[in-house]
Amino acid sequence: MLAANVPTNNGLVRVRLPGMTTTPPRLAFWFSLAIALAGALSPVGAQNPTAEQPKPEGKKIDIVFVGNSYTHFHDLPAFVRAIGLAQTPKVAITTTMLAPGGFTLKSHWDAEGDDSPRTVLKTKTPDFVVLQEQSRLPLDNPELMQDSAMKWGKLLKERKLTPVWYMTWARAAEPTTQGRITAQYEKAHKTGGGRLAPVGRAWQAVLSQHKEQQLHVADGSHPNASGTYLAACVLYVTMCGGDVMTFPDRLIVPGDDGKDRMLIDLPNGEGKRLRAGAAKGLRTERN
């Protein structure tokens, strides 16, 4: 009795061929039968090597945002999630936003209750904790900001969590204050560890080169949708990496009703300007 090795999806299968002789016609018959049986035992997909294979899943990242209106305006965490969904493969990002209006990092430190950051972080172990100080504090009370940075940095280090310092921007009427804001966030980063997201530096890069570009709303303080897009680009690269120049002009996330929710749809020229500013701010930080 002879046998033959027949390739299948699971490797070579040894098929016994009863009564097989070296007579050519009978050999051809039994060999054809062995091939047919092996094919029947193989998964359907293996019979079509050109069939489209599912794309591999991307990273999964959990982020807690601790800030105030500079974080919740236009739903900054949603913008960050949308950039992740636009990647290939997709990066699945989950976010928690703790951002009452006007809060400082000290306000968050002192807060109590189920929605306070220190309570939330007792049960959550996110990949990153984004920390955003009240916009005037780096100028009006830098000592308080640095004291808060030391406390938060120590706590997150103890819990093996990574802080991300979300550097804010100068108000429209005070563009020259960006250097002082930047210096305080750099100091907080040095004190508290983690990563520095140079959003304010990226805003400065865009506004210094494109006087016509609007990033603030009418109050001259909070971001418009373009400003939030710019902030999200810098924050995403700081946490997840990637080439900011490849990010799309249109950002979409699934809505609560199951339908897509479009966050922004930038004209191509504006999108390129903002991403170039983000790239410049990030390069300056790395240098």
Could you walk me through the main structural features you see in this protein, from its secondary elements to its overall organization?
The chain has 287 residues and is of the alpha/beta class. It folds into two domains: 46 residues, no CATH class; 227 residues, Rossmann fold, CATH 3.40.50.1110. Helix content is 44%, strand content 17%. The protein is built from eleven helices and nine strands. The strands form three sheets. Strands 4-3-5-6-7 form a five-stranded parallel β-sheet, sandwiched between helices. Strands 1-2 form a two-stranded antiparallel ribbon. Strands 8-9 form a two-stranded antiparallel ribbon. A hairpin with a 5-residue loop joins strand 8 and strand 9. Helix 3 crosses helix 10, helix 7 packs parallel to helix 8 and helix 9 crosses helix 11. It is globular, with a radius of gyration of 28 Å.
Topology:
Layout: E1 2-8, E2 11-17, H1 24-41, E3 60-66, H2 69-72, H3 76-85, E4 92-98, H4 105-110, H5 117-123, E5 128-131, H6 137-140, H7 142-158, E6 163-166, H8 178-192, E7 195-197, H9 199-209, H10 225-240, E8 250-254, E9 260-265, H11 268-286
Parallel strand pairs: 3-4, 3-5, 5-6, 6-7
Antiparallel strand pairs: 1-2, 8-9
Helix pairs in contact: 3-10, 7-8, 9-10, 9-11, 10-11
* Helix-strand makeup class: alpha/beta
Largest sheet: 5 strands, parallel
The number of strands is: 9
State the helicity in percent bands. Answer: 40-55%
User: Could you tell me how far the N terminus lies from the C terminus, measured between alpha carbons in angstroms?
Assistant: 74 Å
What is the top-level CATH class of the largest domain? Alpha Beta
Total DSSP helices: 11
Output the helix-strand order.
Answer: EEHEHHEHHEHHEHEHHEEH
> So, the CATH homologous superfamily of the largest domain?
SGNH hydrolase
CATH topology of the largest domain: Rossmann fold
**CATH architecture tag of the largest domain:** 3-Layer(aba) Sandwich
Estimate the global geometry from the Cα principal axes. globular
**Sheet with the most strands: spatial strand order:** 4-3-5-6-7
Number of domains: 2
